[in-house]
Batch of 4 targets.
Target 1
Amino acid sequence: MKPMALVGAVAGGALGAFIWALVACLTGFEIGYVAWGVGGLVGFGCYALGGRGQTAAVTAAGLALASILVGKALTIQQILSSAGMRQLYDFFMPQAQAFVHVDSEDECRAFMVANHYTDAASPDQIPDEEVDEFKARTAPLLKDMGEKKPSFDEWQDEPKVQEFFGKATADVSVVTILFESLGPIDLIFAFLGIATAYQVCMRPEKRAWSNAA
């Protein structure tokens, strides 16, 4: 297999995975049949730069599978990011509007209990360390949000909000979600993508030219 054919296959797979993630970012949905297109891009990228025969076909099929998995992982990440940020905004906004009126520590403790920022049953049962952590991490976000009342787009672009969201989702495993979310439709389109990558590289060059003519 020619080295440039491998480069073409990798480039096709990277482009396909990027397009899949971009579509998810723009639409907010994962479109499964894009996986078929990812496999096609891998195969045609390999074929265009000289990939022919069994070795090229098997390599392209393997890279198609890898690219499809990467593309699906990127789409899940995009969807989690956009949907998660929106849910966080809708969750925080009414609380932020209430928190601007919190002035004392007793009121802060009562707010934490009322809004489920603690497992304690009453304000006086909240450990001091938990109150200090709330004041350091969450309270500034609520205070700022309640005073400024930003739109969703303004709010999600703030660096401190992105940092908070990143910490909140640090334990979320995209890989676990990927494999748990695989369904029959995903497997069908993944198979079609892999088969397309394989078949493209198995086409003889003369046949391709004759068909084009």
Target 2
Amino acid sequence: MFRLIGAVLLVSLTPAAASAQVAPAEAASQQVTIESYYRIKWGSLDEFKRLYERNHAPLLRELQKSGNIVAMKMDQPFTHMAGGVRWDLRVTIIYRDAASAMDLDKPGQKLWEEATARLYPDKKKFDEEEARRFGLLEDHWDVVIG
């Protein structure tokens, strides 16, 4: 996931920085907001959210404690959406800077791996639950806001 976000960030930050005439070092230090959208199989939203809160959110909170993540929030649409435009859950994460949002931030990657090992000593169970969580998805996409 970090590599995909990194590629999107590199593509999206370059034109924005050029058009705004922001110095590369300044652009790299600006906060980056990423919205992650999840379309979940019908009837599986509660289970997905439970697994997300148990296995993924604590890791994100570890990155927040370290300062790599500035803020996070989760939203659900108030009304049901139809078909291909439907999303069931949106997670918005504001990262400290582009390096924190991408795989280029090696300390962040190391923190993620250490937190995973510390919080989830039963790696087999963690991997199974994460596979189940991803199995509940119909679609997932990330949007770099800026």
Target 3
Amino acid sequence: MNNEKNDTQISVLERERVYRCLFEQSGTFKNEFIKLGFKAYDYDILNDFEQTDYVCDLYAEIEKAFNNKESIFDTFAKDDVILAFFPCTRFEAQILLWYRGEAMQQKNWSLKKKLEYDLKIHDELSKNYEMITKLVLVALKKEIPIIIENPYSEQHYLNRYWCVKSAVVDNNRWEDGDYEKKPTQYWFIGINPENNLLLEEAPKQKLRTHNSLFGTKNCQVERSMISPVYASRFIKRHLIKGFKEEKTNTLFDFLKE
């Protein structure tokens, strides 16, 4: 889609909106926003992919903003949208196995080691819960719409112990052009998701296996990365008001005529 066609579908207000992608260093969503004619920037503490526009400790920035101190959030406008890919390792259902000492890696651990590890991961869980809640409170205080992404399961910590309910649940990302089938959820605060119809079927990507990434330099990061195709379709379906996709004619369409 070219920019001329974009301009016919996106209002002036939306065109001026800036998307602030937090905890994203890959540039995946940022670059798809830019292709569609929006301004977008990545914020993360790392820059392994050389895509992070603002390298910063986001936890520290959230803390400063929560305490009414100067922070990066002062540079965000009310018409902007925050898209936060918040760290999820302490919220996911698999963490329950580690609490119970039943993870495969803990098979030969002593009771003492398991209990000490319980204290460690509970501290990390508490910190992450505090940070994600403060992030939403900062967005509410500054009246900035925010969308937060995380894996989905009934056992997910935020689904059980958070007062915010996810607005969009994608049960199979692969069907929409991603490398993974795992379900993902999105919280929309201060903004409602669109439900635009996409006429083009998503190309089916080769499924990514976790074994294929084991031992790579950025294994944990790469396992969580979303494909550009999926990112583009998510933006078109849920974020652009009134987006209408033009279906590409195929040989079959011409034969029908």
Target 4
Amino acid sequence: MKRSVLVCALVGVLVGCASTPEEQKPAETVDIKPSVSQPTQPSKPSTDPRAGVSKPQTVGGDPLAALKDPSNILSRRSIYFDYDQFTVKEEFKPVVSAHARFLSQQRSMRVTVQGNTDERGSREYNLALGQRRADAVKQMMTLLGAPAGQIETISFGEEKPRTQGSTEQAWAENRRADIVYQGE
């Protein structure tokens, strides 16, 4: 029941945002500097999933180069979640959208979406929550045009924390799904 409500809500949001812009404006570049103490997040959440998203491009014919270019949204690979949640937040929808578009253009590329949690909760609960987070990112990517066969999901639960510690900052950094491309 929860899953069908989530799917309906996600489809409703995507349909509501499906208008075509009148003119293409150049995308803004986002200066992304990872912080040890806080998750990498945009400073101002956008309500438009296409905001700040440029068309994924390859650099010099190498698709992996675009993934490593810090000025390209594709270099952002972590989707952060609220405590005990697996809904993709508005501020991360442009990132998921850019990766979905990239995968639809690069049919030979494969990704693994790795779901992670903080240390709170039982091992079994955290594995299940991590899987739901990874599946939520995959579902959004496929709804945005990425072929499902190019995306694998896995949960690490609390087993692969990015930050050690039992503080809210450490927990926030560990509540994530990471998009990892094959061949990196």
